[in-house]
Write a structure and sequence with these properties.
The protein is α/β, with parallel strands linked by helices. It folds into two domains: 140 residues, Rossmann fold (3-Layer(aba) Sandwich); 74 residues, 2-Layer Sandwich (Alpha-Beta Plaits). It has six helices and 13 strands. α1 crosses α2. The longest helix is centred in the first third of the chain and has 15 residues. It is globular. The two termini are 16 Å apart. The structure holds ribulose-5-phosphate (5RP). The site of ribulose-5-phosphate has 18 residues, from α2 and α4.
Length: 239
Amino acid sequence: MTPDDFKRQAAAEALKLVEAGMRLGLGTGSTAAHFVELLGARVKAGLDVLCVPTSEATRAQAASLGIRLTTLDETPELDLTVDGADELDNDLRLIKGGGGALLREKIVAATSDRLVIIADASKRVATLGAFPLAVEIVRFGHIATTNMVRDLANEAGCSGTIGLRAGRDRQPFVTDGGNYILDCAFGAIEDPEMLDEALKMIPGVVENGLFLGLADLAIVAGPGGILTLEANWDAGDDE
Ligand code: 5RP
């Protein structure tokens, strides 16, 4: 089994939570793409759900599969969102944004009754931060904003290389919202809440990839089987 097989297993498990008539948030990334593909097959077989995608990429994939789509403006309350993550800890704190969709992902997650994270076991960590933290910033004054991110992150106990994300064309990567992304290689983030608060104080920062207190359940598939982690922080024992 490859990591991609485990991603698909987690996605298939999450699909069991979907019921007819639900309003769903669809995440972004390779794991979420498995979920969308499997959901598409169910829709083709007659399941009726209404979905809000968290990125233009997911919108295109879901549309190609015939999944009924809406916008968050038309449907501002969702029953369930299924999304991937770059890292998750035992308290279901997450790092997201590797795919650059963190802003829409966080807005959609916040408006959902339940956020379910699907991942392969390599995403589980004891301490967040090995994966660089994405920070979405407005383009105007981005150098000044980068300096402020560095300074305030330092005060929150985090330091490391901060790079402006580049796209395949080597130009700065631009998000669906028209912003830039800073990738912050802080290493271990000992106090994610403190860092999150510090980043939120910076005017040019739109959002950051720390998802704290948002995930209700994580479905993690690995060589030992499928593990479920609940937001009450009790680990499932079915691995
Ligand atoms: C996109 C995300 C993704 O969920 C995260 O990057 C995980 O991606 P993948 O499932 O491809 O490993 O946050 O912004």
